């Protein structure tokens, strides 16, 4: 709403007019009170309304005003328009009239009408009825709550819920910027537009779609949801791609809203070279939770890289095999009723190991439950959690479907006798039923410190026999044909106590105690070293130690300098690493600043550390401001005895062992971790573990930068060189990933994305696209190629189109949240 400056000479007149108008508006109330012969002292003044005016009062500010009967007429100037306020409504105009008895109003000349909900209407002429909700407008314009604009030559408010506009224009884009009026990027012009708030829809007759000044589409009828609607049935933005295997691919999603708490998404993918894929999604929200079920179905042959002629020359995206029913299911549910319990499930399965790759199914690997299946693995689980401020219990059971190429053949193009790639068998992965985790802390301190009790239990069942690193290399027989999978059950109990003491000089001392007991029951062990059948194994550990840290800070005129040296000394009994215990959950360890000082540095329970060890490290930080800082951490652990049980077989040389954890030697790997942010537009961090000879074992680094208003780029690097020998089974890797966008002229620019496999010397995935992006439209047209060996269906390349429209939504499945 525009503001006008008013000369001082109008103040007295304004106050007098306000008093007179208010008296006239209250006259019927006063007459009623006198007719009832009530004492004058009991006549009550109506309470002020939300805008500060008493009920029925009218406030007018004008250069001149007159009153004839019940009609107040006010006149202003183009620079000092009339201002009228009543019942929460505000009117501005060069001239206006208001009928005190009927409650109607009319205004001319740069009219603004502001409703109590903040909606603003602009017009050259405006008439409103007694409720100030229906009327007629000439040269109508309004700005909707979602930022869209609606304009028309004339507008008629038929009822409180129906508005009719003639020769109208609708656009979700801004129509003004810092330079003044601008042509919207996208607009719809129509002969007639009806906004029906009861139907919650905007209906168009003879509509023409414009991109800038260019008409691109005409339809005699068009409709879209009213701007007040968060979700409504209708077609969503189509998804267009081109792929060598599928050909031209168009996916047209249709959202059917059943209620505020339920909807269906029907999204057929139409392909020119193969049969269509029907995608469905059902969502339902309940009072205490929600369920999402997503699936797809087709009846088609395979199309992968295949030796069609049997000459050893594999061609990409070749159709072969018989037509079969192919489908997938990705569903999850989560419920959080009142009280400490919550529960949920995931159900994830696919009929084909390469279905997601071939049909480019979006986001199939998601973290929707208590446990995550990892990339190219699907997990089906049920779980329940109980949590209070002092306790936590979780119970779960799950199974996993693997979509990975068999790790023994991941680095080669090995095929079975029928020419199909060999995938990791689901029988190699365990069925986990159940997995229980629990912890509890008392409210009060125990001997001045915090006590925590922890428990864990798990049962794992495996169909196929799996050797190292699951089993100790000494237990793996040379011939495994006919051996069943090793089943294991474990129960763990643990107690932790820690106390914090801060000395007057600032030295922080934390003594701690830790005790742990494990009990294993094993079945179907291989007949090696005298073991076999069922075995029961137990072990225990008692530890005591102290953490010492001495944080120091120095404030200077330009920066704060913080030094944080820390050391830990701990003593435990020797760990009883029985070779019969399978290593199911502790194969991977990520040494970093947070894990270096833990008593249990492995990711799970199957490997346990013992003996005496000394760990030391320090962090230095320089902070120039809230968004400008740099930090560096260096630390290392020393063990008084080697622990060769942490070593496992080298995949390419089973007779030789190596240390993937970096903890088997007397000295651990060095942990180096840092971050650098010279401004709020540049952020970087790095982490590395370095062995005693100075070789980098693992490393990660990332750099994010922004320049200009919308230009940005991100570069990340990841390295694993823990396996010391080259070979086809070597799981070492080295990747660089890049994403970015650069605007070249106005709203036009380009985007790039890519992943380079430095170990294999190839670009595994790349995208290059043309970009247009303004305040209401983002459009990308580009070329992509997927050449990674991890992609089981072979190399693929094609054209992609991504489109996001303000108000109308974007290309994808995220179609608004159910309320």
Description:
Helix content is 4%, strand content 54%. Strand 20 and strand 21 form a beta hairpin. The longest helix has 25 residues, at 11-35.
Summarize the structure.
The chain is built from 2 helices and 49 strands. The chain has 819 residues and is mainly beta.
Distance between the termini: 32 Å
Task: Give helix % range.
Answer: under 10%
Shape: globular
Task: Give the overall pLDDT as a whole number.
Answer: 85
Q: What oligomeric assembly is this protein in?
A: single chain
Query: Got a strand count?
Result: 49
Largest sheet: 26 strands, antiparallel, barrel
Strand content: over 45%
Number of helices: 2
Which blocks of ≥5 consecutive residues have pLDDT under 50? 1-49, 813-817
Structural class: mainly beta
Rounded to the nearest angstrom, the radius of gyration is: 36 Å
What's the topology here?
Layout: H1 11-35, E1 59-61, E2 64-68, E3 71-75, E4 82-86, E5 89-93, E6 95-99, E7 105-114, E8 120-128, E9 135-143, E10 149-157, E11 162-171, E12 176-177, E13 180-181, E14 186-196, E15 201-211, E16 214-225, E17 234-235, E18 239-243, E19 247-251, E20 254-259, E21 262-271, E22 277-286, E23 289-306, E24 315-335, E25 341-350, H2 355-359, E26 377-387, E27 391-402, E28 431-440, E29 450-461, E30 487-498, E31 501-502, E32 508-525, E33 533-549, E34 552-555, E35 560-572, E36 612-625, E37 628-639, E38 648-650, E39 653-658, E40 670-679, E41 682-690, E42 696-707, E43 711-720, E44 733-745, E45 748-757, E46 762-773, E47 777-786, E48 796-805, E49 809-810
Antiparallel strand pairs: 1-4, 2-3, 3-6, 4-5, 5-7, 6-7, 7-8, 8-9, 9-10, 10-11, 11-14, 12-13, 14-15, 15-16, 17-20, 18-19, 18-48, 19-21, 20-21, 21-22, 22-23, 23-24, 24-25, 25-26, 26-27, 27-28, 28-29, 29-30, 30-32, 31-32, 32-33, 33-35, 34-35, 35-36, 36-37, 37-40, 38-39, 40-41, 41-42, 42-43, ...
């Amino acid at each position: 709403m525009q503001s006008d400056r008013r000369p001082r000479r109008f103040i007295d007149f304004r106050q007098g007019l306000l008093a007179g108008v208010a008296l006239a508006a209250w006259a019927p109330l006063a007459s009623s009170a006198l007719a009832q012969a009530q004492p004058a002292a009991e006549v009550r003044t109506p309470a002020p309304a939300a805008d500060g005016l008493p009920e029925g009062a009218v406030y007018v500010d004008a250069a001149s005003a007159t009153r004839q009967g019940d009609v107040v007429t006010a006149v202003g100037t183009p620079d000092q328009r009339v201002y009228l306020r009543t019942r929460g409504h505000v009117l501005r105009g060069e001239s206006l009239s208001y009928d005190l008895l009927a409650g109607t109003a009319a205004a001319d000349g740069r009219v603004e009408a502001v409703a109590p909900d903040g909606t603003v209407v602009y017009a050259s002429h405006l008439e409103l009825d007694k409720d100030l909700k229906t009327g007629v407008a000439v040269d109508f314009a309004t700005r909707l709550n979602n930022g869209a604009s609606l304009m028309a030559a004339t507008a008629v408010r038929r009822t409180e819920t129906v508005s009719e506009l003639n020769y109208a224009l609708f656009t979700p884009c801004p129509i003004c910027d810092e330079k003044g009026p601008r042509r919207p990027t996208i607009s719809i012009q129509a002969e007639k537009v009806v906004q029906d708030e009861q139907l919650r829809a905007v209906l168009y007759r003879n509509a023409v779609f414009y991109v800038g000044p260019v008409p691109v589409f005409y339809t005699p009828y068009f409709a879209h949801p009213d701007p007040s609607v968060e979700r409504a049935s209708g077609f969503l933005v189509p998804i267009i791609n081109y792929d060598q295997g599928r050909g031209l691919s168009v996916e047209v999603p249709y959202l059917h809203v059943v209620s505020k708490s339920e909807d269906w998404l029907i999204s057929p993918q139409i392909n020119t070279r193969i049969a269509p894929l029907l995608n469905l999604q059902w969502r339902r929200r309940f009072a205490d939770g929600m369920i999402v079920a997503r699936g797809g179905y087709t009846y088609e042959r395979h199309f992968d890289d295949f030796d069609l002629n049997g000459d050893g020359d594999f061609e990409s995206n070749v159709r072969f095999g018989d037509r079969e029913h192919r489908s997938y299911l990705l569903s999850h549910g989560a419920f959080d009723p009142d009280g400490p319990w919550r529960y949920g499930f995931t159900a994830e399965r696919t009929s084909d190991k390469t279905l997601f790759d071939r049909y480019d199914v979006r986001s199939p690997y998601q973290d929707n439950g208590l446990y995550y299946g990892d990339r190219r693995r699907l997990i089906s689980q049920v779980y329940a959690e109980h949590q209070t401020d002092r306790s936590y219990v979780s119970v779960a059971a799950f199974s996993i479907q693997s979509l990975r190429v068999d790790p023994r053949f991941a680095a080669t193009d090995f095929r079975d006798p029928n020419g199909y790639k060999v995938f990791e068998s689901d029988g190699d992965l365990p069925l986990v039923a159940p997995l229980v985790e629990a912890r509890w802390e008392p409210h009060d301190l125990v001997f001045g410190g915090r006590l925590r009790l922890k428990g864990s239990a798990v049962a794992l069942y495996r169909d196929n026999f799996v050797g190292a690193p699951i089993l100790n290399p000494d237990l793996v027989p040379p011939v495994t044909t006919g051996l069943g999978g090793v089943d294991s059950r474990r129960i763990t109990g643990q107690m932790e106590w820690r106390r914090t003491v801060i000395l007057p000089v600032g030295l922080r001392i934390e003594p701690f105690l830790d005790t742990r007991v494990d009990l294993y029951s094993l079945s179907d062990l291989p007949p090696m070293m005298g073991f076999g059948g069922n075995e029961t194994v137990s072990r225990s550990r008692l530890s005591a130690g102290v953490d010492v840290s001495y944080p120091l800070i120095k404030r200077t005129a330009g920066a704060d300098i913080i030094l944080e040296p820390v050391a830990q000394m701990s003593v435990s009994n020797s760990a009883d690493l029985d070779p019969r215990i399978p290593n199911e959950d502790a194969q991977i360890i990520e040494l970093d600043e947070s894990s270096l000082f833990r008593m249990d540095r492995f990711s799970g329970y199957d490997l346990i550390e013992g003996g005496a060890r000394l760990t030391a490290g320090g962090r230095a930080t320089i902070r120039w401001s809230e968004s400008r800082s740099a930090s560096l951490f260096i630390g290392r652990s020393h063990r008084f005895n080697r622990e060769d049980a942490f070593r496992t077989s080298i995949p390419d040389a089973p007779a030789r062992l190596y240390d993937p954890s970096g903890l088997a030697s007397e000295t651990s790997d060095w942990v180096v971790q840092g971050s650098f942010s010279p401004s709020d537009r540049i952020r970087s961090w790095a982490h590395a573990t370095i062995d005693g000879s100075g070789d980098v074992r693992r490393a990660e680094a990332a750099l994010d930068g922004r320049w200009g208003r919308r230009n940005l780029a991100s570069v990340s690097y990841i390295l694993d060189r823990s396996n010391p020998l080259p070979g086809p089974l070597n799981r070492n890797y080295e990747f660089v990933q890049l994403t970015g966008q650069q605007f070249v002229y106005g709203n036009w620019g380009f985007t790039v994305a890519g992943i380079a496999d430095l170990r294999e010397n190839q670009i595994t995935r790349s995208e290059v696209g043309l970009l247009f992006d303004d305040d209401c439209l983002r459009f990308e047209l580009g070329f992509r190629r997927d050449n990674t060996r991890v992609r089981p269906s072979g190399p693929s390349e094609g054209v992609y189109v991504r489109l996001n429209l303000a108000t109308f939504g974007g290309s994808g499945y995220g179609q608004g949240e159910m309320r």
